[in-house]
Design a protein that fits this description.
- The protein has helices spanning 7-28, 34-56, 64-93.
- By secondary structure, the chain is an all-alpha fold.
- Helix 2 runs antiparallel to helix 3 (64-93).
- The protein is flat.
């Protein structure tokens, strides 16, 4: 099987995703300013999503064009979320 993963690879991915999740929880309790905290959490979530896509959807072995077909649409919800966050911060600053 050319696309199969070994048990060790699954364990490594489990540990990496667990560590990234623990970092997300830690970021929440660091007392960072709201904008920085949200930016860090979004970055970590996007990183985790990319790892899941590359590993579990087997995209790491695909062509560049297929990676772009999957990856570019993933950017739009993140961009939309950032715009909404900025709008929310701006609205709260002026009220």
């Amino acid at each position: 099987m050319s696309g199969a993963h070994s048990k060790k690879q699954y364990l490594v991915m489990f540990v990496v995703l667990t560590v990234l999740t623990a970092i997300e929880v830690g970021v929440k309790y660091l007392g960072l300013p709201r904008g920085i905290m949200i930016g860090a959490l979004i970055s970590l979530a996007l990183g985790k999503a990319a790892l899941v896509a590359l590993f579990f959807m087997h995209l790491k072995n695909e062509t560049r064009s297929l990676k772009m077909v999957v990856g570019l649409p993933m950017c739009f919800p993140a961009l939309y979320a950032v715009v909404l966050i900025i709008e929310s911060i701006a609205r709260s600053a002026f009220t």
